[in-house]
């Protein structure tokens, strides 16, 4: 099959950029993003706490791992759902009439 013609000025997909973007997103979340998100949530739940007190509370709950609470569910949400494959596989065939279009005896 021949590749689809591109419009003038349109660039192709650079898969290296997709890979680098994914790696950078994971690096950002695991180094700074998730710990600060946990601290922000702790401070929102306890309005009287400041950053040092919130950090001590999170540390007392789980040490270093306390700052990464909720990381696994975030990773699960960011993965593509397996239903996407089923949705593509179960799309109706355009040649067959839908149940409402079928003749009934």
Q: What does this entry look like structurally?
A:
The protein is mainly α. The protein has a domain at 35-77. Helices cover 55% and strands 0% of the residues. It is built from four helices and no strands. The protein has helices at residues 15-45, 51-62, 71-78, 83-89.
Quick structural gist:
With 105 residues, this protein is mainly α. 55% of the residues lie in helices and 0% in strands.
Helix content: 55-70%
Over all CA atoms, what is the radius of gyration?
24 Å
* Proportion of beta-strand residues: under 5%
Number of helices: 4
Largest sheet: none
Question: Could you tell me the number of beta strands?
Answer: 0
Order of helices and strands: HHHH
- What is the oligomeric state here? single chain
Main structural class: mainly alpha
**What separation lies between the terminal Cα atoms?**
43 Å
Low-confidence stretches: none
| Overall geometry | elongated
Average pLDDT figure: 76
Layout of secondary structure:
Elements: H1 15-45, H2 51-62, H3 71-78, H4 83-89
Helix pairs in contact: 1-2
Key terms:
105 residues, mainly alpha, 55% helix, elongated
